[in-house]
Design brief:
globular, two-stranded parallel ribbon, 14% strand, alpha/beta, 4-stranded parallel β-sheet
């Protein structure tokens, strides 16, 4: 397993966590920015050392500004698109080239959002980027199917992560969020990870070009 993240401290913690959970596992990693094409190609090559690259999970993402569309800063909008769409493209392209090179294929899973399928007021930047991520996954699925590479997107609703902790810590915001989730709670990261693991596995061998919603019924 090979982990890539922009923050060296959080990356080291993630590597230690995986190693602690799976004793004996070989876990490597590199600090890199997903918007850096050369860094993504280097990371993909490093991940393949000593074997082959079977799976890519591209989960990098940043939040939107939470502003009315008329108040959005163009540079901020571009940054959200750069990370949430172009970054996933660069990571997928780097991994896909290696997966295709030996003729054995692989699986790519992009982490999008339910916001990529339905808009949320005040998040035009984030909505647009996640819609782009969904269509990127579907487009790559068409292009890469003949090379044995499956590509899917996971579309979570609200998940308890550092990105959402500010919203969930505000009683009013939390109440508004939970009011729209039939299950009545936000997801835990492991609940999203289990869906990603399924899509990456051979059990999903006939699943490609899909956008799997995991939102507790919010979009039902």
């Amino acid at each position: 397993m090979y982990l890539v993240g922009r923050d060296p401290g959080r990356l080291a913690a993630a590597i230690a966590s995986v190693q602690g959970a799976t004793p004996g596992a070989t876990v490597g990693g590199a600090a890199a920015d997903v918007t850096d094409a050369s860094a993504m190609h280097a990371a993909a090559a490093a991940a393949r050392q000593g074997g082959r690259l079977d799976i890519l999970v591209a989960s990098a993402g940043v939040d939107g500004a939470g502003l009315d569309v008329l108040d959005l800063d163009p540079d901020g909008f571009a940054r959200v698109m750069d990370v949430n769409v172009r970054g996933l493209f660069l990571a997928s392209q780097a991994a896909g080239r290696l997966m295709a090179s030996d003729g054995r294929g692989g699986s790519i899973v992009l982490v999008a959002s339910v916001n990529g399928l339905e808009a949320e007021r005040g998040f035009a930047d984030y909505n647009a980027s996640k819609g782009g991520a969904v269509l990127l996954a579907r487009s790559m699925a068409l292009d890469l199917a003949g090379r044995g590479i499956r590509v899917n997107a996971v579309c979570p609703g609200y998940v308890r992560t550092p990105m959402t902790e500010g919203y969930l810590a505000d009683p009013n915001a939390r109440g508004e969020i939970l009011a729209h989730i039939p299950i009545g709670r936000v997801a835990e990261p492991d609940e999203i990870a289990s869906v990603i693991a399924f899509l990456a596995s051979d059990e999903a061998s006939y699943v490609t070009g899909a956008a799997i919603v995991v939102d507790g019924g919010r979009s039902a």
